[in-house]
């Protein structure tokens, strides 16, 4: 049995992930999205998919496939070279995120939270303030600098910290936390924005199995509350265990979009090539 067969066997043996009991309301329609750096080849090369409310979508592919770039372009931290990202809401006009600037783009980023592998916390600030900084786009900078947040924001931050088992650390400096704790703070901060979409760029890459499970459990709970979650992962096993859908990218193109249980050996080979032996 080769590595791909072994991997497939182990992943197919994993328990069937529960499908989310939510309506398939489309929140984002990504159409023929391309991104190149300095006029070089397309790092994203015609990506199209619809994202639905309450989905937990795993994004997989070998190193350099374009996973991270995709999340940054969706979030608006990198600009698209061409294509469209349509934000769809019941009570709102359709917005093309690729055309937003200034205040409108900042508003989008508050609706589309992002968490990063390296957490991006402010090390010398306490945990509670780091979480409250998620409200930055809705609070004046001056007020934030002086830590003047409304009681309702503080109550929400405390609620989130309690949910994540971090309340005992609320007044501790972020720099004194473990990696797993920092990532949980980063999730709380992103949720302080009340996002409709949460993007997570390899949030478990440097974490031990216990913390990995905690973070993935948290992301699953977030999606079950109706927030669409897209998470870049290097582990097909995690995708199989947690995600309701997987998008596989190779050389900036979608080569698989479907249920994780339906991934075939051929598709994994197409996605990972000679990196397949490094998968877990
Ligand atoms: N700021 C940049 N300037 C130029 N090229 C870049 C920049 N950021 C990313 N790239 C290139 O874009 C390609 C895709 O990178 P990206 O980080 O999106 O891949 P990835 O699939 O997330 O990889 P990994 O799993 O290793 O994080 C790579 O070839 C990378 O070198």
Automatic annotation (TrEMBL):
Pfam families, per database record: ABC_tran (PF00005)
PROSITE patterns named in the record: ABC_TRANSPORTER_1, ABC_TRANSPORTER_2
GO cellular component: plasma membrane
Domain ABC transporter per the UniProt entry, residue ranges: 28-276
Main location: membrane
Domain of life: Bacteria
Intracellular or extracellular location(s): Cell inner membrane
SMART domains reported in the protein's UniProt record: AAA
NCBIfam families: ABC_phnC
Annotated protein name in UniProt: Phosphonate ABC transporter ATP-binding protein
Gene Ontology molecular function, alphabetical: ABC-type phosphonate transporter activity; ATP binding; ATP hydrolysis activity
Coiled coil location: none
Keywords attached to this entry: ATP-binding, Cell membrane, Membrane, Nucleotide-binding, Translocase, Transport
InterPro entries assigned: AAA+_ATPase, ABC_transporter-like_ATP-bd, ABC_transporter-like_CS, ABC_transpr_PhnC, MetN_ABC_transporter-like, P-loop_NTPase
Membrane topology: Peripheral membrane protein
């Amino acid at each position: 049995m080769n590595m791909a067969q072994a991997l497939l066997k182990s992943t197919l043996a994993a328990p069937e992930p529960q499908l989310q009991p939510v309506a398939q309301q489309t929140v984002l329609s990504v159409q023929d999205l391309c991104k190149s750096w300095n006029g070089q080849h397309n790092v994203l090369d015609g990506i199209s998919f619809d994202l639905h409310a309450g989905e937990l979508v795993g994004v997989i592919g070998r190193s350099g496939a374009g996973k991270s770039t995709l999340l940054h372009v969706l979030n608006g931290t990198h600009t698209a070279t061409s294509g469209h990202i349509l934000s769809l809401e019941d009570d709102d006009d359709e917005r093309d995120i690729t055309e937003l600037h200034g205040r409108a783009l900042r508003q989008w980023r508050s609706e589309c939270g992002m968490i990063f592998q390296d957490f991006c916390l402010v090390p010398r600030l306490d945990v509670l303030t780091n979480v409250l900084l998620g409200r930055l786009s809705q609070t004046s900078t001056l007020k934030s600098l002086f830590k003047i947040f409304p009681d309702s924001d503080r109550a929400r931050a405390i609620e989130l910290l309690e949910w994540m088992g971090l309340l005992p650390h609320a007044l501790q400096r972020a720099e004194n936390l473990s990696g797993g704790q920092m990532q949980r703070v980063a999730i709380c901060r992103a949720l302080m924005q009340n996002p409709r979409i949460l993007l997570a760029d390899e949030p478990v890459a440097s974490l031990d199995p216990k913390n990995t499970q905690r973070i993935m459990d948290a992301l699953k709970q977030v999606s079950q509350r109706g927030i669409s979650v897209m998470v870049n992962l290097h582990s097909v096993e995690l995708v199989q265990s947690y995600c309701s859908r997987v998008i596989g990218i190779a050389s900036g193109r979608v080569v698989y979009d479907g249920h994780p249980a339906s991934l075939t050996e051929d598709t994994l080979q197409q996605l990972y090539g000679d990196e397949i032996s490094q998968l877990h």
